[in-house]
Amino acid sequence: MSTPIRIAIVGLGFGSEFIPIYQSHPDAELAAICQRNPTSLNRIGNAFNIKKRYTSYAQLLEDPNIDAVHINSPIPDHAPMSLAALNAGKHVACTVPMATTIDELLALVAAQRKARKTYMMMETVVYSREYLFVKDLYDRAVLGRIQFLRGSHQQDMDGWPNYWPGLPPMWYATHCVSPCLAILSQPNNPALAQSVTCHGSGRIREDLIPLYNSPFAVQSATFSIKNHDVAAEVTRSLFDTARQYRESFDVTGSRVSFEWQQLDGDDPVLHIKGLPENQIPKKVKVPDYAARLPEPIRKFTGAIHDATHLSFLQGAGHGGSHPHLAHNFLQAVLGNQPAFPDAPTSANWTAVGLCAHDSAMHDARPTLIPAF
């Protein structure tokens, strides 16, 4: 395709954070925004000077002057909206997870192949500065041989609206699954989960259980990785657990191990083999990797960047990941590099959590992950 890529952002809560990034990117044109609520749609459209606005997603997909959609809708809408966009001939970037059933994952992978359009699940963790730091250490052989991987995502969703109450924790597991697989991946050779075993632990409030027929307060899974001798462990919680919000990722290496993070805001820790015991752990400052991006969007790797639009922005951009996500999606649409994660890889990362939940509901039965 020729530039600029004409993008429409769908969903303007979290999605608003990407508006100034696409407006500043040399390969993009923020062509339209879409939200069902016209008051909010116009408020944001006026703030960012966006002329084309849609309250109907179906009408947006009929617009021939839109090349790609970036979907930031509620979780149950991800699969049907992505499928509709691919069938309409649009490139798709979609926030996590890709879907909530295996059948939806299979349908999306098939639709992407048929449409021959780019699909990329916009997983923030694998473009965060902390992940990019440890991935660089591994690729430069600083860590040595990876011996074990662990991810954890703990979040209290009490008080969140709509579909959240009672949601099975593992249905929203890509933030802890993805770094365990991404770090072992190489260009055109993604590491893929093969099988999973998951234990459910504890019990949420009785009024929440019938909403998804899921009783567990915590779900903890181990999964094997195809063509690797490394196993990974991931833990998720959403309700009735006392814990500060945390996304963490640990890599146990033969020479150096990496831990991120114990408390929100803490620096990651490196454990260096061969030092005196009290010198083994060392907190490290990680760079922002802005130099990997086109100059006009490097500023977005930091915290909130523009107080003028403060009311539309949520925070620090998931470890500076947002401009990296937008840039890599655009380069994939242009054919300059593969999407990461692409549709089959996104399906695999999402399926780990779906299959883990199924395993937990069947007394930790080992469960194979479908091939996509």
What report would you give on this structure?
By secondary structure, the protein is α/β, with parallel strands linked by helices. It folds into 2 domains: 5-124 and 296-339, NAD(P)-binding Rossmann-like Domain (Rossmann fold); 125-291 and 350-368, Dihydrodipicolinate Reductase, domain 2, CATH 3.30.360.10. It is built from 10 helices and 15 strands. It has helices spanning 19-24, 38-48, 57-61, 78-87, 102-115, 129-139, 174-182, 209-212, 317-333, 343-361; strands spanning 5-10, 28-34, 53-54, 68-71, 91-94, 119-121, 146-154, 193-201, 218-225, 231-237, 246-253, 256-260, 269-272, 281-283, 367-368. Strands 14-13-12-11-7-10-9-8-15 form a 9-stranded mixed beta sheet, with helices on one face. It has a 6-stranded parallel beta sheet with strand order 3-2-1-4-5-6, sandwiched between helices. Strand 4, helix 4 (78-87) and strand 5 form a beta-alpha-beta unit. Helix 4 (78-87) packs parallel to helix 5, helix 5 (102-115) runs antiparallel to helix 10 (343-361) and helix 7 (174-182) crosses helix 10 (343-361). The radius of gyration is 20 Å and the shape is globular. The two termini are 26 Å apart. Residues 303-316 have low confidence and may be disordered.
